[in-house]
Amino acid sequence: MKQFKRHIITSALPYANGPIHIGHLAGVYIPADIYVRYLRSKGEDVVWVCGSDEHGVAIELKARKEGKPPQEIVDFYHNQIKESFLEFGISFDIYHRTSSKLHHKTAADFFKQMEAEGKFKIETSKQFYDEKESQFLADRYIKGTCPVCGFQEAYGDQCENCGSTLSPTELKFPRSMLSGEAPVIRETKHWYLPLDEYEPWLKDWLLEGHKEWKPNVYGQCKSWIDNGLRPRPMTRDLNWGIPVSVEGGEGKVLYVWFDAPIGYISATKQWAIDNGKNWEVYWKGDDTRLLHFIGKDNIVFHCIVFPTILKAAGGYVLPDNVPANEFLNLEGSKISTSRNWAVWLHEYLEDLPGKQDTLRYTLTANAPEIKDNDFTWKDFQTRNNSELVAIFGNFVNRAVVLIHKYFDGKLPERGELQPIDNEIIKSIKEAPQRIADSLDQFKFREALFQLMELARAGNKYLADTEPWKLIKEDKGRVETILNIAVQISVNLSILCEPFLPFTAEKLISILAIEKSKWSAAGSIDLTESGHQLNKAALLFEKIEDKEVEAQVNKLLKTKKMNEQEKLTPNLPALKDEVVFDDFIKMDLRVGEIKTAQRLEKSNKLLKFSVDMGLETRTILSGVAKHFTPEEMIGKRVTVVANLAPRKIMGIESQGMLLFAENSDGKLVMVSPEEDAENGASIS
Q1: What pLDDT sits at residue 567?
Q2: pTM, whole model, 2 decimals?
Q3: Which domains are seen in the chain, by residue range?
């Protein structure tokens, strides 16, 4: 295996349009944090960069929906995400953001250099266009009926109901998410990265040169390449993003998957500025190792698209490995941010304060390393109570309590060893290498198991030797047993730090020792006899049934709401409660439409003459997109008769017609089922 002088580690930039959930932690950030902490403990030169991905369609849509500028949206979620990471001990060297001036310049310079060197191909293609909003529509700006399953809310790139990958033109009844109108097809120009031209190189570099990559990663890459790569546009017709600052690029921005990975480089630049370092050796040095920690949905971008960009730009190191994970499900169902089917980190911290390591442990033990895995609250409780509390915590607590009980908290000397002592010492010496071997292969579940094996061995050692029974007849033997127990505990403080950093801090405090490097682990002479230990304190607390039930009930409530939404999708929530006296102020009457006509200067309004029994009124209503004037004549309608008159486009409207809006946006007239005379009061 090639030896590297330094490591640049990246983790997928979380999208700044919502909070972080446990799926993100399990798939990307905890594995990366474990690996980076391990490298630091070994004394390696490592820089771990990440940051918020703050451009793209979803952010612009959220901003439109909330009536806020996109920058306000990304500022809020950037700060929330950054705080959540800090709370869970995710130890980035820098957490940057793609809205920074440094990143904008870095990404724009990348594009301009590649454009000047002829690395792109400019092509014209046909794309949906919203005439009302005067804007081309990215795939996620379009919804329609899925041609595969008939789901009416499918996006232009994917149906979230059946999972089918789509193109916008495949949708039935497509509509713009900006205006709700049916889009038209227009031609637009974009800069394409000719991936097909790099296919021979990718076959050699990736398929031949990186067969050691995880099978789920290698297999997906091979499938993409075997099916033939096609040019991919690196620009978009959007308002929010990094402007394409080359000739002909007016009104266009960089494609988010060109922009975002370059965020790793701009983050490194900012880290270098802040720490007086040279960023280029971490991205251009032959003795630098580049690793990407990502989820499976980003494999193609980090293994094919971004390496091709780096290759085209020239002079950059390429990823040595991309240990991508699969997805984590929640209670048997796919995590979904849109359906609120998730465990959000900021909410977890509110509900279960101080239990960051319990979640880190459970997510590592259930890590979706080569296939999707499942998180359940019951398993979370079991792992905490039966493993962390009953094994790890119990062992350390017993050792420290017994030393305080029999030796006033001072570490006793170690005497003559017996076979059982030699057996546990062998386990101590072998544990660091066993854990390291697993970590070096990105097998984090296996590494955690090896860590717990040492804690189990320590627990068994105390149970088999029973020092509490020997104290009266052989104090010297008890001294040896408890000395070894403390040496195990000190080793655990070193070896558990990458996995359980908060626990490591507690353990170091209890043992009253300094933090040690990885190379120290495996020794049984880490603490000298006579060393004063602090009082025992619980490393982990038992999680009660009621705490788990509260979390399960929260999910059940979400599930019930989702099922109700399926029955009545997109229907508005109930308005605030009113009292009877407010209701009876409304004078609802039956009317009959006598005439109907369009207004020349409006594409929304129809003008009606409505027979109200004693009088005929002129009423304007914005329903021209739903009804023709001809079909409305003769219809019986419900009129709000005592609504104050209002001038609209110079015409006085003398009431309001009532319509119901279905979940698909279709309007239906509110009419009496049986004959009622014009002007009849509705009560």
Answers
A1: 53
A2: 0.81
A3: 6-112+256-325 (3.40.50.620), 116-236 (2.170.220.10), 345-520 (1.10.730.10), 580-682 (2.40.50.140)
